[in-house]
Specification:
By secondary structure, the protein is mainly alpha-helical. The protein contains seven helices and two strands. The protein has a two-stranded antiparallel sheet with strand order 1-2. A hairpin with a 2-residue loop joins strand 1 and strand 2. Helix 4 packs across helix 7. It is globular.
Length: 163
């Protein structure tokens, strides 16, 4: 159901509950430039999967997934780098190529940049009248990242329970 004016959607409220109840599993966030940055990959993924798998037949699991972003882990940034959509500073790229573990800030920045790049892709798609959702884009890019030469692109290393 679409949110009423100013009221969070069912999906947003469910994600908030997941994060509040199970922060060790779902509170995927960090701090950058004195701001909190929430990525919430696993919480958003759970909502997207419940909606896709059960939402058609069971109203309890029907969510308005339009507020979700792509669910950035280390696959999406690699796919976007491979296709020239996401540029990474040479020192960070060297760490990725060497499979050196990224710092908290570096992981947050590259995953946030992937989310922002995907938001721009979605905006262009909308301008062109294409009905692409963040979930569809996420699933497409993630699957694409598991195939062919894209599978060989080095992904950043970061030890996290959030993806």
């Amino acid at each position: 159901a679409a949110p009423r004016s100013g009221e969070p959607s069912i999906a947003a409220r469910f994600i908030d509950r997941l994060v509040d109840t199970f922060p060790d599993a779902f509170l995927d966030m960090g701090h950058f430039a004195d701001a909190d940055v929430y990525l919430l990959k696993k919480a958003q993924l759970l909502v997207a999967e419940l909606d896709q798998r059960l939402g058609q037949g069971e109203p309890l699991f029907r969510f308005d997934a339009s507020e979700l972003t792509v669910m950035a882990d280390n696959v999406l940034p690699a796919v976007l780098r491979h296709h020239g959509v996401l540029a990474v500073a040479p020192p960070l790229l060297a760490k990725i190529e060497a499979l050196a573990e990224l710092s908290d800030a570096e992981d947050l920045q590259i995953r946030s940049a992937a989310v922002q790049a995907c938001e721009r892709i979605l905006a262009v798609a909308q301008e062109r009248g294409l009905g692409v959702t963040s979930r569809q884009l996420d699933y497409y890019l993630w699957q694409h990242g598991k195939q062919g030469d894209v599978r060989q692109v080095k992904r950043h290393v970061y030890k996290s329970s959030f993806y």
